[in-house]
Amino acid sequence: MSSNYRIKIGHINFLNVLPLNYFYANCNDKNFEFTMGVPAFVNAKIKSGLLDLSLISSIEYARQSENLILLPKICVRADSDVTSIILISRKPIDELDGEKLAITAKSATAHCLLKIILAESYGVKPNYSVESLSVENPVPNDSTAALFIGDDALYLNLHRQKNFLYYDLGGEWKKLTGRQMVYAVLAARKKFAKDYSELLQDTCQKIYNGLKFGLQNKRAAINSVLDSKPFTYDELDKYLGGVIKWDLTADGIDALKIFYQLAQKNNLLEKVPTIEIFGGD
Asked: Under CATH, which number does the domain 7-79+181-280 receive?
């Protein structure tokens, strides 16, 4: 194992992981090479072998489980309402059968989550269209509803328009299953974990400590983005830690298993993966 190996780390560039973003922005470890992007971007990067480890969509871990191993302690989850995965609709959610529903091109987990909720809770099957959506025109003129995630969804949820109905997918999942929802997980390629086990162990600890650093400096982290994001300090303070949580628990693993089972039931996943966690934690 070479001590000079540069670890290729992917990360989701959303506010829901601002504490980690803040650590990475202030990290001087020369052995870390970061690639940032929306979930769909980093999902593709780790699949193609261009990343050693990354925070990725939880559904993507299931799809790539033969080649990935879950890293302990860190995820992105919410106990109920998530406020940043939002369905915006011209009609009530139970009237969307056969209607055109535009879904953001940025996501993976949210696509599956939406399809599961609409099928299992409401018995409807819209006509889905993956598109680049804009906050200026949230529901395209030719669509009945649209799915947003991340910072755009958070903004639209906080600035609701009277002519639309809003549905929080975290809250909908809680109503359906009674469980929390794990939206993203930290995973590494199995080959990297095998070839660089000690290095990965050390990196996991550094990332975990980095998350703690970001949380300890949450005020500074929030202040660092206020000039570039359309949110107030109080809005982000409530969102980060009040709504979004980052600890991967046993309950979270159980919730993931339910998500994967329902994804397979609805033909969104070929098989339910055996969840393997690095280090056995």
From this structure: 3.40.190.10
